[in-house]
Write a structure and sequence with these properties.
This protein has about 80 residues and is an all-alpha fold. Helices cover about 80% and strands about 0% of the residues. Helix 2 runs antiparallel to helix 3 and helix 4 packs antiparallel against helix 5. The longest helix has 14 residues.
Length: about 80
């Protein structure tokens, strides 16, 4: 999973935001209880303009008890 995570970073740095978004979505599918993957996917959705779609992932990250400060800050910007 770590290789997939870094591949998503590489895609994002290369400007392939849709590819990076697909990778982050897959990481959430593989590990839905990961606050980090939910947070990252929510943030990538937000960066890509999918604001409404980002909210559930950011809320899930907060509910999972990790990344609380960062996810809460991003969510507060949205609401």
């Amino acid at each position: 999973m770590l290789v997939l995570f870094y591949h998503g970073i590489d895609l994002e740095q290369a400007g392939d935001y849709e590819g990076a978004l697909a990778i982050s979505r897959r990481l959430v599918e593989l590990d839905p209880l990961s606050a980090i993957h939910n947070n990252n996917h929510g943030y990538k959705l937000l960066e890509s303009g999918y604001v409404d779609e980002a909210v559930p992932y950011l809320k899930t990250a907060i509910d999972l008890g990790q990344e609380r400060a960062y996810s809460g800050l991003v969510l507060a910007r949205l609401l």
